[in-house]
Every structure is written in structure tokens, then in C-alpha cells.
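Checked the freezer inventory, then went back to the computational side. Two predictions to log before the end of the day. The first one is the construct we discussed on Monday; recording sequence and C-alpha cells without edits.
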Amino acid sequence: MRHRIVGELMTSAVVHVPPGTGFKEIARLLAEHDITSVPVLDHEDRPIGLVSEADLLLNEAAQEDPAGLLLTPHLEPRERARSRATTAAGLMTSPVVCARPEWTVVEAVRLMQGKRLKRLPVVDEAGRLVGIVSSSDLLRVFLRHDRAIREEIRRDVLRNTLDIDPDTLDVQVHDGLVTLVGTVEHRGQVPMVERLCRSVDGVIGVTSHLGHRTDDTVVPDPTR
């Protein structure tokens, strides 16, 4: 089975800045390119941080209310320093969490969820920036056509992986939902078919109506 990888889904043309880039220039780049963050690269094109809209807005959040109606915000020392920064080096969030182009969608999504991130710079084996992948990029796997999902299940899951004749089962896919009907040879094959179908890129859920001819999960009683 072949899973889509980060390198196929990432954006290769990445807007980035050096550490000395000024506050207003970063704000201009975000607005001009309709993006929410930019990687900060060192002289060897390695990401050393990320400046987001939230980082820039710290500057406003730290300001006192001119009308005197709001309390002065409490910021941690690091946030206070960043709110006064004027270049990318001071504004950026660091260290930056990165992905690799050969990672699967599952690997990237798990890292994003674990770190509560919406985007990941993508680096090569030398740590140099080669792209950026966002949560919206990864969601593209769910835009696969039902026909392509069905053919992958029949070819890669049933025939190539489990050595099951795909014509012996009825595989239907509608809006990413898979329905399986039919009979397999062994009971132990049923959960394997279901699990592998769920792992196919673009599958949202699996409904199984699979039966079996023999129960290979029963352990014979040696005393009988």
C-alpha cells in the first residue's frame, strides 16, 4: 500500500525571511501573499524560527489601553521581550518544529496535533528548507475520488496485501465511506480487511458486513 507523503502535498515556493527582517516588512509579506506565518532562515537556509500573525499581534496586546478602560496585560518575560521586538530574530517562535518530505500524512498530522500547530516547515536531510505543509494541505487526501479509493482497496489491500480475489467481495465507496459485503475464507481476515481499508488515504469510515467460512481463531483443545 502506498500512502501520500508530505513532499507530494507541501508548498515548495515558500515565502521566508532572514533574521534581520523588520516588523513592517514581515507584516507586508503576510498581507501580500495571504499567509499567516513565515519561516526565518539562517545563512544556510535552515529554519531557526517562525513568525506568525500572533507573534506580530503581541506588539498590540502589550500596549496600554489609551482610554484607560482595560487593565495592563500581564505577559511573561519572554513574551514581553517579543512584544517589543522589531525584527524577525526577536519576534519569532523558536525552536521551530519541522517535518520531512518522506513523512506520511499520518506522521505529519500526529505531530501537528501533539504540538498544536497548523503548519510545518519541511526540511531535507541537511535541515534546509524545501517546503511548508499546512493542515489544509493534508486535508487534500480526503478529496480523493471514490473511484480511486475503491480501486486502491481492491488492488492494494485485497489482491496485493491479503491475497484475496477482489471480485469475491463487494466494495462500495461513497464520499469516502467504505462499505464491505461478502465472505472471506478465514475469520481472522475480517479485522485485517477492515483495518487496512481504514488506513487507505481518503477513507473516512468503514462499514463491514463481512462473513467467514472457517473460524481460524479457535484454539483446539489438546485434551480432546
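The second is the one RB wanted added to the comparison set:
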Amino acid sequence: MIMTMQNATSERLKIKAFLVSKGFSHRLISSIKKSGMLRIDGQKKTTADFIESGDILNLRLPKEKSDPNVPFSFEPLTVVFEDANWLVIDKPAGLPSVPGPSNRDDTVVNRVKGHLKNQGSQDLVPHVITRLDRFTSGVMLIAKNRLAASVLSPQIEQHTIQKKYRAFVSGRLTEKQGLIDKPIAKTADGIHREISEDGQQAQTRFQVIHQYENFAEVEAELLTGRTHQIRVHFTILGHPLLGDKLYGGPLDMGITRQALHAESLTFTDPLTDREQTFKVKLPEDMEQLKHV
């Protein structure tokens, strides 16, 4: 793949420092040293050379080969947005995000691989940025190449990608909005998560959209990104999600999976410095809960 980047600063920088400033990992820079190509005004460069203010750097990276242990799937994807570096999809409930022991053939990753192959892409390793539980529906961000994944890593580490969810939780909430700040850790079975002082920091901001007789529709924003975070946080408050069998949510409320939907995400594309926001509508099984 070929990328073009301009040194928009007023400084003369070593190309390595310039790449680091753009979010390139040291591993990716090492790969560029070995088998990539750098050019400025048609002249071949190395990472030890300089890029002047205003110069445009052309960068070619070796392609990422397909992993033979991850099969292609050509089942459909609902594409919300796509360009040369990013793919945003609306994942249906029931489709795993990544291959695992119980399903290695048809997950988001397998379908994206099939999608990329159909496009004739030379990079056939999808990089999942915002992973969702199997039975959680909604918007997902995938980097189509390792360069995009690498330059987005600071936003991932600093939790600056804004992720908002819609959930239906059991019971009546006395607070209409708030911040749940409870650390989360793995349990002994490796499946459940629990609140623990020894766990990782986890913060969820929420507000009630509508209070029904015995459940509530809430918007939840992840300030961190722990496994099962929203599900665990509302369970500890005594309001597990409707349909959430794993965490004791009611199973007789008209939905057969946890009532959780990734509604929107916002991130800044480091390659263009443009803020991007994507929003997807509630799926039918959650929409009908409003009319029970």
C-alpha cells in the first residue's frame, strides 16, 4: 500500500521522528526499514534522513498476507462507511467479532477478509478497533491495514474514541444520570467479569432516556473499554440488562439476547486529522421493546 503524508509543521524533522509523531509504532517503523520504501520528490529516503517543513513523504508498505488459519467468509456485511483505510459496519447480534474455538469460519474478521478479497486488496489482515460481544449489535470500526491501526493506537490507549451504547436495563432507576466508576476483573471461570478492587479501572457514564414500568432505556458512554463493562456495571447497580442470561437479567421481557446496541462512535482519523462520527439505528428486537 502507498500512503502520502505532508510535514505540516514548521520544523525540519528526521523521518523516523516524523513517523513517530504521526503515531507509527516502532514495530511498524522497523518493518518500513526492512522492506518498505520512502520517497520525497521522487528521491529515495531512509528513516534517518530529514523531511523539511512542507515536504510530502510517499510511503510504501509491504502487503499483509492472509493468515491461512483464518478462512475467508463471503457472507454479507452491512457497510456504514468505507475508504482506503477504514471500514465501519453495523454488526448484527449473534455474529462474533473475531474467530474463536467455537467459530473460526464466520465472524466479522472472516467476512471483512472476504470483503477485502472481493475488492482486490493486497492487505488481507483486518484489524478490529472496536470489538463487540457476540450478542451485542451495532457499529464497529475496523482498520483495513496495519498503518491505519498503528496510527490510531494512541486514541485507543488514551480512550479518546467516543463510544455510545443504547441499553434496556431491568427495574426502575432512581438516578436519571450518573457515572459508574467500578474496577472490573476476570472471574475464575474466565468468562464472567466482576467488580474487584484488584481489577482494571472502568468508567461508564449513563443517562436515562425513558423509564418504563419495570425497565428503563438508557444511553451509556464508555469512558474505558473493559470486557462486558456495561453489563457488569448495571448488574452491580441491581439493574442487569434485559435478556442477559450471563449476568442474571430477566429472560421474559421479549428479547432473547442482552439488550445492548453500540449506537455511535466518534474518532479522529490521524491520517487526515478529520473527526468522523457514525451512528446506526436500533435493531428491530430492541426497537420493539419500546412498545411492549
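For RB: The first helix runs from residue 15 to 21. Residues 224 and 284 are 28 Å apart (CA to CA). Let me know if you want it refolded.
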